[in-house]
Amino acid sequence: LIGTAGHVDHGKSTLIQRLTGRDPDRWEEEKRRGLTIDLGFAWTTLGDIEASFVDVPGHERYLKNMLAGIEAIDVALFVVAADEGWMPQSEEHLAVLDLLGVDRGVVAVTKTDLVEEDLVELVAVETTEKLAGSSLDGAMVLPVSATTGRGMDELVNELADLASGVSPRDLGRPRLWVDRSFSAAGAGTVVTGSLLDGELAVDDPVIVYPQGLNARIRGIQSHEQPVERVGPGRRVALNLARLDRTEISRGDMVGLPGQWESSHRFLVSLQPARYVEELPSRGAYQLHMGSSAHGVTIVGSKGARALLQAERPIPMAVGDRFILRDTGRKLVVAGGRVLDPSPGATREALATSVDPDQPPDRIAATLLRIRGSDTLQRLAAHSGGGRPGDAIRAGRVAIDPARFDVLRTRAEKLVRQHHRRHPLRVGVPLATLASRLGLDQEAAEAVVESS
Description:
The protein has helices at 12-20, 28-33, 63-70, 88-100, 117-131, 152-164, 346-350, 360-371, 376-383, 401-421, 430-437, 441-450, and strands at 2-6, 40-46, 49-55, 75-81, 105-110, 140-143, 175-184, 188-196, 200-201, 205-209, 213-222, 225-227, 229-230, 234-241, 253-255, 262-272, 285-289, 292-302, 305-315, 321-326, 331-340, 373-375, 392-394, 397-399. By secondary structure, it is α+β, with helices and mostly antiparallel strands. The relative contact order is 0.09.
């Protein structure tokens, strides 16, 4: 997946059209005004790689639309016009890529046919300096012209080289953040998005998150070709049965049943944008994750960690990236990653640490150590499919060994107290013991059997 970035009217869509032969601007207003308003899509073959392109709007007014499409990209095509040079949205778009950790990219200095060569060289040097310290530090800067064809072969070769090093992550837990939904004649509800983390197939049952709506995949298309099965790292259209067009929209997520859980309070790492010195905790913020946007409040913070409270639940897992935007200043101010989708009390949560770059099994084990006990399904959903290897399992519940020892000691104490108070009774009812321990009956039975 290759995504554009850069200031308004710097030639992103024109460049995509030259590269792919397809106009990414879909709306009549976009064509009339010569201005990208919403996300555009195209595709082509780079060497032996079929590449999807996501074209984003550059105007600050449509930054929300830009953020809805940029998170899933593997390679950035950053565009700076030779006749204007580095501009405010160039800086903000670079900050977004930097906060999302997009470190594969190329810079195209466009419109070189409109200016003298000295100015082209000056813009290229300035752009290289602006990239310093960002995730795109060291990216190749290529002077190009979509009009004359200058540098286009070099740009195609660089994009092909960057794309060849991409291996889409497959966790067996597919998700598709919806960026378009519509009704097609004779087909019904269709949604489009960039498929991540696993494959989907025709007839798969799916869930629309966070609503929890059931649907079935009636048909799949990728790059306008029908397919029976599609893997991660591609633009995909899903024809969904059992679902009305009005029940799903941009910002919803399609995934497999039982694999995802939604949360409205979560622990994150926070990194201020390159141009932000301090992040006020009392600001009005909007969180952008996948194609969704949510009002959030910073409940508490400690160092680089913060607890966020969202207006509505968001399907998420440890390691998911997001962008934080100040709605008052209409400016991207920070980004980060989810550390715990379901943390405990504020003070204790801010004192915990989860490494989002660990393998899923290790993440699941860390979450279990923090929580003490949890269901295996929830641990898998929050860790990206992990299973805690050293956990003590009681039916559908996993218990951390240290927590299990504490529970066993408490259970023995509760039983002794019960016998002293009621010497003629047979014992403590299992339901009562489970309630006193804060466990379900299966887990309580496992504690009793171990004592």
